[in-house]
Amino acid sequence: MAYAAACVALLAVPILAQYPEGSLYSPPISSGYGNWSAAYAKAHAFVCNLTITEKEVNSKTDPSVAKQWDNDVSAEKKFEDFYGIADKLKVALLGTLREGTGPVHRSMAVAKRTGPDFLFLANAHSQKFNDIEKHPEAVTVTFQDSSTQDWVSVTGKAVTSSNDDPRIKEVWSKATSAWFGDLGDGVHTGKPEDPRMKLIEIQPTYISYWKAEVGALGFGKEVIGAIVTGGVANTGALREMKEDEIKQARSTDSSMSS
């Protein structure tokens, strides 16, 4: 009923707008009418199209899906917000595909981000290296901020390094040794030269993320408004970047590290 009433109300807008100060007894105004007519048409279509038929509901017309996507922003803006979320959180779930088990995830600190690519320092004896060896193109990296509900989902391929990769010394810190330990044999010392230390580089092929665009009050307003009107709450921006965009960012943002 609320949608129907809103739709009918909008039908009256173009009639009243043609008259100065809304007076039906004054001559119609023609100048400037076309300037806002397109905006009106979009508003009318938005409200009235919410009452679509059962057969018309699909991934493009369902507002609970279509309304969330915000891919009209520039690639620069999309990657800027993506980097901002990931750099703030620093700890992610690294997912691999394990033979006979399926997807397996573990929490890991990001050692470094270079453009859209992520670097992790890991123990070469851990099972994730076996997973990556067998399924290097079936890895994921996910982040979630519980305070804002921002999240990032990365799908891509993994490349592992040898122990002599100079980047190991670059990302190693004394705190790192706490996760390896000194085995007392003079070799497995927990230092950069420890043969157990290897890098896992994740090169994304697809990225999606959601970024909150309202605070607590705005969130409540959107949710309550949606419940009352039967509409769909819109509290943030859902965006995606595909392989071509990511390759471009890898080229242009290679100096943007964290």
From TrEMBL:
Family matches, as SUPFAM superfamilies: FMN-binding split barrel (SSF50475)
Domain of life per record: Eukaryota
Signal sequence extent: 1-17
Alphabetic keyword roster: Signal
Annotated ranges, domain General stress protein FMN-binding split barrel: 84-231
Pfam families in UniProt: Pyrid_ox_like
Keyword Signal: yes
Name recorded for this polypeptide: General stress protein FMN-binding split barrel domain-containing protein
Organism from which the protein derives: Friedmanniomyces simplex
